[in-house]
Design goal:
The chain is an all-alpha fold. It is built from four helices and no strands.
Length: 151
């Protein structure tokens, strides 16, 4: 580089975009709960053969909806963040969205005959499929961003 055009230093560009990541995490949390509620609202209960099947169907539908909401939120985060690792930003926003939105909602809305520790244990178990959906959403978001930049 010439003296008139110095090489860029690490201080010239921020390494991450913390404000956008925090905003995306909050929106991902809301999206996870909202999509789960929408899935549960539109779930057809006519095929359930009894109370146990109905409860399991509702639980599976709610968990799937929460995971899809987290997938959408983490993918949007990867598209929204301008600096740093977009995949990591999507993963961070999705995981934070789970622990800030989905997990408290699951624990606080548990039936009265379920203890706090049981509700928390189920929420921790649900984290396993949720983090897979979050990783898929972040990867899709990074891929869509690269595709958008090529066109």
């Amino acid at each position: 580089m010439t003296p008139d055009d110095p090489a860029p230093s690490p201080r010239d560009q921020p390494q991450s975009d913390p404000l956008r990541i925090v905003l995306s995490a909050v929106l991902t949390a809301g999206l996870g709960v909202a999509v789960a509620a929408a899935f549960l609202h539109y779930y057809p209960r006519a095929s359930d053969e009894g109370p146990t099947a109905a409860a399991l169907g509702d639980a599976f539908t709610w968990i799937l909806g929460a995971c899809v909401g987290l997938l959408i939120g983490s993918g949007a985060t990867a598209l929204f963040v301008r600096h740093g690792s977009r995949f990591f930003a999507g993963m961070l926003a999705g995981a934070a969205g789970f622990w800030v939105g989905v997990m408290p909602y699951m624990v606080l809305t548990a039936p009265s005959d379920v203890s706090f520790s049981d509700a928390f244990g189920v929420a921790v178990i649900v984290f396993a499929p949720a983090i897979l959906f979050v990783a898929a959403g972040a990867a899709i978001g990074v891929g869509l961003r690269r595709l958008r930049l090529r066109l």
